[in-house]
Amino acid sequence: MYDLKEFVETTKRFYNKEVSIGDYKGFSGNFGSYAQRGGESSMLRLRMTGGIVNRDKAVFIADMIKRYGISLIHATTCQTIQLHGLDRDTVCDVIALAPEHGIYTVGGGGDNPRNVMASPLSGIDPEEYFDVTPYAEAAADYLLAQIWKIKLPRKLKVGFSSSPKNECHVTFRDLGFVAKENGKFDVYSAGGLGNNAKMGLKVAEDIEPQQILYYIKAMIDTFIAHGNYKVRAKARTRYMQDELGAEGYVKAFCEALDNVKSEDLTLDIKMPAEYPEWHGEACGRIHPQKQPDRYYVTYHPIGGNPPVETFVKIAEMMTDENTLRLAPDSTIYIAGCTMEQAEKFVELTADGASTSLEASTSCIGSSICQIGLQNSQALLKAIIEAVREENFADGVLPKLHISGCTSSCGAHQTAEIGFSGRVKRVDDKVVPSFLMVINGNDELGREKFGEEIGIIAADVIPSMMVEIGKSVAAAGMVYEDWIRENRAEFDMIVGKYL
Ligand code: SF4
User: Fold this and answer.
1) Cα gap 147→29, rounded to integer Å
2) 492 lines ligand 1 (CB under 6 A)
């Protein structure tokens, strides 16, 4: 059961040092909260199904920012919003108030079904196959209802993709639904990033969208039956591929599916009517939606951390027509705008990224995350500062993905250039370092985990990026084309820093 009283009491005992950090982590994650590094403040993760934040939710977050003086919020790669630096009373207050606005935090951490993800532009993207939002919402309702009934070996991440962009990595998630042109889903399972990264296995093709809950129930049952409850490091769903073999896993999943067929889990979702065709023009960060005369604005807060003053102003300017769409790369789309509104939102969000490099993705990093190894946010900041001095054109350096440790919250394996926190010995000293990974891809049909290049000391990475940028700029190219034709030069530059 969802016992908030227990959360409040245990949190008080934790801040009184009567509960250890480890014990508190095991408890508080079930409520979507963790103590931050040092144990002096808390983080709270607000679930946002499909990354959609309506006006009421945005205004609630803005109110919390103002009322409690919150100074750091982070748009996560799981399409949630994290509030950081909360004191004991604030975390207890916010967690109690959030459900009044349809915001749930339960199961936001721990061994639970996590925030259900969906393509961030679902329902507004002119190029999507169909809007997957109603299915993501039905999945979220179903999974939230399971949280206190089941005991999973580890967390379970479910995602929906509405187009081949595959932003939510549904072909390599614990369970992923891929929308198709024919109005159906293909289903992938037991994939994931992090240690022992694995592509998902296709467990079903062309399923009717109204049947998704059968596949979710089969996933839960398969995980409970075959997941590893003994060794935590091998408990994520992808390890079932190692245990059972690919064929054995698919067989086990299909058997579980057969067993749930007698249940009544068919959905009855009515899809919205098609919109009349129109051809709006994109203009800078303003893009046309599929709805006539509606636009969305792209805003990538640096490091995924919108300045709280900007977030408050965005919330205050939103109407009931607007939604924020949190993307898995920490971009925030402001949707449902008229052109006049869109222009105002562009002005308001001028603090965001202005190049691909500045739109890099970084997890929150080890200055806050208890289990983090390196400060991914500090690395990104140092790279951006060094690169800004060079005034490279947009595209000379690509969007990076940075994770503070092997957990891959920054999805470094999917990036053109990714970094993942490690340590390295230099002159007999252990120094903060990052594993460099290149040429990853997350697009549907072209998925590839990046190639590991080597471990580089954090303090020289900004210089290395500048050197790569200079070579790309000198060739008059963008990075994406340059790396294809100049791999030997890339290896030569990077080799000096390894
Ligand atoms: S990748 Fe590591 S450091 Fe970053 S948020 Fe995840 S666990 Fe923490």
Assistant:
1) 12
2) no
Residue 431: which domain range?
361-495
Domain harbouring 230, CATH code: 3.30.413.10
33-35 sheet: strands from edge to edge: 33-35, 42-46, 81-86, 72-75
pLDDT band at 256 (very low <50, low <70, confident <90, very high): very high
**Ligand 1 contact via 409 beta carbon (within 6 Å):** yes
Burial level of 444, CB count in 10 A (0-12/13-18/19+)?
A: middle
- Whether residue 308 lies inside any domain: the answer is no
- Compute φ and ψ for 253, nearest 5 degrees: -65, -45
Assess contact for 218 and 260: CB atoms under 8 A.
Answer: yes
Q: In 398-486, which ranges are continuous DSSP H helix? A: 461-474, 479-485
Say how many Å lie between the CA of residue 36 and the centre of ligand 1: 12
CA distance readout (Å), 323 to 27, 52, 150, 317, 359: 33, 7, 33, 11, 21
Tell me the C-alpha to C-alpha distance, in Å, between residue 34 and each of 91, 303, 388.
Answer: 10, 20, 35
Is the CB–ligand 1 distance for residue 363 below 6 Å? yes
What pLDDT, in 10s, does the model give residues 51-94?
999 999 999 999 999 999 999 999 999 999 999 999 999 999 99
Q: Which of 260, 291, 306 is the last residue of a domain?
A: 260
| Count of positions (residues) in the chain | 498
